[in-house]
Amino acid sequence: MNIIYIQKYSLLIIALFLLGGCSPRYDYTIHKPKVKYAKPSQYALQSMLQESQGKPYVWAEEGPRSFDCSGLTYYSYASMNLWLPRRAIEQSRVGQTVSISALQYGDLIFFDTSGKGRVNHVGIYIGNGFFRHASSRKAKVMTSTIRKGFYRHRIVVCKRVIPQKHKVIKSKSWVDFF
């Protein structure tokens, strides 16, 4: 009779371990941020990006304590009452395509950082050849350049998602950058 109880309890314990191991490590639910600014503006975007600077990179997070790259863009624009899809590849299909030389503050820059020929990273252009992004390489939200180095030749597409009626400042010319 003791063997039957041991077998039942053993099966129960094994089942609990298996079920516990199958539970998700991450919360994959997409959480829409509160709208902090009724309209997109340079001030609103600067505030959002300043608030996020230095926050940790965590895959599949969309803020406000930690971000992945598309989570940062999703959070920043949703906080300004602008909708974006959650993933970088999907975000790259939204908005007006712009050339590198026409980039303006707040435009999105999409990269292929893996060399596999597809968008897998996104950042927000902040002017003068710089962009803000949640970098998995440095494990935080940071500012990088597209003038030289790692990101220069990995740009796939640039998109303008801020409606022209809410136009923000223009950046300097790109003639000297490349």
Overview in brief:
The protein has helices at residues 2-22, 42-52, 69-78, 88-91, and strands spanning 96-98, 108-111, 121-127, 130-135, 140-145, 155-160. By secondary structure, the protein is α+β, with helices and mostly antiparallel strands.
Give an overview in words.
The chain is an alpha+beta fold. The chain has one domain (about 40-165): endopeptidase domain like (from Nostoc punctiforme) (endopeptidase fold (from Nostoc punctiforme), Alpha-Beta Complex), CATH 3.90.1720. It is built from 4 helices and 6 strands; from the N terminus they run ααααββββββ. The protein has a 6-stranded antiparallel β-sheet with strand order 1-6-2-3-4-5. It is globular.
The top-level CATH class is: Alpha Beta
Instruction: Output the helix-strand order.
Output: HHHHEEEEEE
Instruction: Give the strand order of the largest sheet, numbering strands 1, 2, ... along the chain.
Output: 1-6-2-3-4-5
CATH superfamily, by name, is: endopeptidase domain like (from Nostoc punctiforme)
Low-confidence stretches: 16-24, 168-178
CATH architecture: Alpha-Beta Complex
Tell me, what's the shape? globular
The whole-angstrom Rg is 21 Å
Report the biggest beta sheet as strand number plus sense, adding barrel if it closes: 6 strands, antiparallel
Class derived from helix and strand content: alpha+beta
Helix content: 25-40%
CATH topology: endopeptidase fold (from Nostoc punctiforme)
Mean pLDDT: 82
What is the count of DSSP helices, taking H or I runs of 4+ residues?
4
| Intertermini distance | 81 Å
- Number of discrete domains: 1
